[in-house]
Amino acid sequence: MVTDVEEPRLTRGERRRATIERVAIDEFLAHGIAGASMARLAEASGVSRPALYQYYRDKRELFATSLITVFEQRVDAALAELDEPGPAADQLDRFLQRYEGDLWERMSASEHTEEIIEAKDPDIRAAMRSTLDRLHDGLERYFESIYSGKGQKRAAQRKAWIDLLGLAPRGFWADEPSVETFRQRLTNLAHTVAAAVATTR
User: Fold this and answer.
1) Where along the chain do its domains lie?
2) What integer best gives the mean pLDDT of the chain?
């Protein structure tokens, strides 16, 4: 049985929801959306099944909420890495490892990855929009700090690097690589972008 997540600033209900959502991600990865069991989720979360339905209308709502929570946590962890000291290559590598690498490590171990990825409906995408905007704003601030200057050319270059960091990792998944290979690709991307920043100055 899992106990409530310890978050002193959260109410008891918020802590309970955080615990349920953490358990739910494991359940969805293990059994898929169709095969996930609300009874198993309730038991693993330490709540009764009726109590589970006080927090979530149904399995789809729990899936959507859990997915959004994981996404927000990934963004928080990734942006925090950009504030850590060190060379740009290391900062960008850690950023990519938290944002993309950790997710691939969890997803690649599941037989239900495709089902989960395809289940992101327009409502979920809309809910994630503000978090994606926050990620983009954080990257903009970061690149302005290491490649400062005004003008369209500099702004366009910063945008190109942000686009590359955001889009290239999707292609890295195409051949369903091992976690080690995927993480190495992320490191290569980070070092490539950092080298481009250094030589473009």
Assistant:
1) 1-56, 70-200
2) 90
Which residue's structure tokens are 């366009």? 156
pTM of the model: 0.85
CB 147 within 8 A of CB 197: yes
Q: What is the pLDDT of residue 10?
A: 74
* CATH C-level class of 70-200: mainly alpha
Calpha distance 197→157 (Å, rounded) = 9
pLDDT one-digit tens code per residue, 83-95: 999 999 999 999 9
* Helix or strand run (H / E) with residue 159: helix 152-172
Residue 4: per-residue pLDDT: 47
Measure the CA–CA gap between 1 and 9, rounded to whole angstroms. 23
Q: d(Cα 175, Cα 34) in Å, to the nearest integer?
A: 25
d(CA 138, CA 142): 6
DSSP class of residue 148 equals -
Task: Return the half-sphere exposure (C-beta side, CA atoms, 13 A cut-off) of residue 81.
Answer: 22
Distance from CA of residue 87 to its chain's centroid?
Answer: 23
Q: What is the pLDDT of residue 23?
A: 92
Residue 99 and residue 73: Cα distance in Å, rounded?
9
